[in-house]
Specification:
MetI-like fold, about 0% strand, 2 strands, globular, two-stranded antiparallel ribbon, about 75% helix
Length: about 290
């Protein structure tokens, strides 16, 4: 017996799909148009072909920004994912403590990005900021406005503070979804805590951790507001990530062609990397 499939539900979704597609395609086509043209102002454009793509891919400036971006992204992933899982494992499963912990975990995520950058900028200043003053008081020569290492430390520390909560909430959701039967069977078998985590909790969290890694990867690769407010890409160009460099080219230098080409390359790098991440993490999953 053939099952009849009702497709009328798409009628309710279609307006949203069309609206999102319209809002996404128009800016994308504008960027594509700029990426193959040159302009000298007065709304005059000249065909440039693939020149800007070749120039960007061969530019040491782009390579340096990409390397800094990769270092930042993989650094925060290596810190936030294990830390988020550890915090989720330590959170209570029952009682009023659950609500309290969830509220505290959600609070950093509610703060606007520009406010986060401003908060940490003031917090880390070596003369008036509590973090900067405390580190210098115990003998650590700290000044994120002049030392690239200190700037990187502050930038990563800020991102860990701001976004680890997202990993915690996703990991916690995966943990509470595990049936108690698994834990009871492990207790009967005399499984140690590490074995419970390795063979029960981690496999059951695999999908939510995949989502967490993808979200944090894409967001960290697109990050702009927090590092720009905190360091402005400095000292020098030591914390100039791809997004900051792109804005400098587009708005600072007003090179619309190279900026458009760079943004498309930027988009393709994120898209390809996310696909590789997803493929590797979901390998072996049942369809």
């Amino acid at each position: 017996m053939n099952k009849t499939v009702n497709q009328k539900g798409w009628l309710f979704v279609a307006p949203v799909v069309l609206l999102v597609a319209f809002n996404a395609l128009i800016p994308l086509m504008t960027v594509v148009n700029y990426s193959v043209q040159e302009t000298f102002g007065d709304n005059l454009f000249f065909w440039a072909g693939l020149r800007w793509f070749v120039d960007i891919l061969a530019s040491p400036r782009f390579h340096d920004s990409l390397v800094r971006q990769l270092i930042f992204t993989f650094s925060i992933l290596l810190i936030e994912v294990p830390l988020g899982v550890a915090v989720a494992l330590a959170m209570p499963r029952k009682g009023i403590g659950v609500s309290v912990c969830l509220v505290f975990m959600a609070m950093p995520l509610l703060i606007p990005w520009n406010v986060v950058g401003s908060m940490w900028n003031i917090f880390a200043l070596p003369d008036i900021g509590f973090l900067g003053w405390a580190l210098n008081a115990i003998g650590i020569d700290y000044n994120f406005t002049q030392d690239p290492v200190d700037a990187w430390f502050t930038l990563i520390f800020m991102d860990v503070w701001h976004w680890t909560s997202l990993v915690v909430l996703l990991a916690y959701a995966g943990l509470v979804a595990i049936p108690d039967d698994y834990y009871q069977a492990a207790k009967i078998d005399g499984a140690r805590p590490w074995a419970v985590f390795r063979y029960i909790q981690l496999p059951k969290m695999r999908r939510v951790l995949t989502i967490a890694v993808l979200l944090r990867f894409m967001d960290s690769f697109n990050i702009y507001t927090e590092p720009f407010v905190l360091t402005g890409g400095g000292p020098g160009n030591s914390t100039t990530l791809l997004s900051i460099d792109l804005v400098k080219i587009a708005l600072g230098q007003f090179d619309l062609g190279p900026a458009a080409a760079m943004s498309l390359i930027y988009f393709l790098v994120i898209l390809l990397s996310s696909w590789i991440f997803y493929t590797l993490m979901m390998r072996g999953e049942e369809s």
